[in-house]
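Late entry, written up from scratch paper. The run itself happened at the end of the previous shift, but nothing got recorded in the book at the time, so transcribing now.
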Amino acid sequence: MSSTEAPITPQVEADLAIAKRGCSELLVESEFTRKLARSHATGKPLRIKLGLDPTAPDIHLGHTVVLNKMRQLQDLGHTVIFLIGDFTSMIGDPSGRNATRPPLTAEQIHDNAKTYYAQASLVLDPAKTEIRYNSEWCDPLGARGLIQLASRYTVARMMERDDFTKRFKGGVPISVHEFLYPLLQGYDSVVLKADLELGGTDQKFNLLVGRELQKEYGQEPQCVLTMPLLEGVDGVDKMSKSKANYIGITESPESMFGKLMSISDTLMWKYFELLSFRSMDDILQLQKQVQEGMNPRDTKVALAQEIVARFHSQQAARDALSGFEARFRDGAIPDEMPEVQLGAAPLGILKVLREAGLVASGAEAQRNVEQGGVRVDGDRIEDKALQLPAGTYVVQVGKRKFARVTLTG
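Output as recorded:
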């Protein structure tokens, strides 16, 4: 350590551990440690950036993985910048895509952005959050500025992106405007003078472009912290509205509680690590108790109550638990059950029963409904013509046949 570097104190190490909890990657850890030490020594908070494009009007628990990390860093005293990508949304992020995504209109972006920050404020501390829109500096950039910015990054570097490489080799078109997305996201970091940028693992390339552009503009490069993509309630695909496996943070307490209770016992621990505000010591203690014989359902109830209370209230969490227990008290729901994914929602209940393997024929499905032996999420089904919309459901036939069925659109 040089004489000008701040010391790495136990408090710096503790803060680093909080930053790294649940993360996939921290680049470059030694650089971020020095930034933390300098912040402690000078009292100057780090500038921590998270950019979200308002491509949909609502935020789900998958989005809150990075928001939770921002809140943890915010509680350590650092400056959180919640950046709404109203300009870059008009381009469309090509990350992880195998085809060009249609850009949103200005009206769609405006409508979606209206609810974004209000919902994010359910996680972040609004009084300590700096909210920005990247149209502030991207609009004035103009054609001349955009050309000058583009001159600072090469096509060869851009083609290092896996999705661009795969599309190029597969003969799938890549529009020139898609190259502008990571370039402008990186320019956001230059304008905001970010010390750390967060994102999902699918954003790694874009975040690293910010590091390179900051160097080009003579700034200290930001560090990059990526968070895992959270699987949805089906335990298969990442949480997404298009996959109908999501839990929206503005859903009713009952819906939120029921969906959290439907996740598998294995996935529950990932939800604890990425969504719970409990300490890792507490979570490890819960794991030990389950290993020693405690019913994992009791642990899942604790998780569901914590999440519902955060986005609604403690009373709402208690009421959701009472309602859940009332629905299921007539029969014990197993902790593990077959996972089935079906398409073409909405789908008739009789067809759901057949395709989920819960009955052998349509006649058997019809007979079970008529006899009151079919339940969906604990509610007895009496309408043979019932159509289930996209979503995830615990479907029960009789006392012993269960399946967790996900219907996609």
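DSSP finds 16 helices and 13 strands in the chain.
(Scratch paper discarded after transcription.)
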